[in-house]
Amino acid sequence: xxxxxxxxxxxxxxxxxxxxxxxxxxxxxxxxxxxxxxxxxxxxxxxxxxxxxxxxxxxxxxxxxxxxxxxxxxxxxxxxxxxxxxxxxxxxxxxxxxxxxxxxxxxxxxxxxx
Length: 114
Known about the structure:
By secondary structure, the protein is mainly α. It is built from 5 helices and no strands. 50% of the residues lie in helices and 0% in strands. InterPro entries: Arc_rbn_hlx_hlx. This is Replication protein RepA.
């Protein structure tokens, strides 16, 4: 082993370049306790879903939950006819349910418990 092997090698800079405006916006969001991917008050479903572009954001987390056979087949059918990914369909439905008033949510939940 020679002394040249002990030389410190430069690490590659892996930081993403951001504009000043993006940096300030992120700082403001951080100060207000907001994180990327959170729906903001007054934000429409379309605006929220625009931010759910899988290629540009890393706000997705893997989730596992149980569905009935009927729900799975219905979801499969919707995905085939609309040619939209099942996970995106679920995100849309969850957001639509979230936007409902409490009474409307309770009505929907009471119908589904049959």
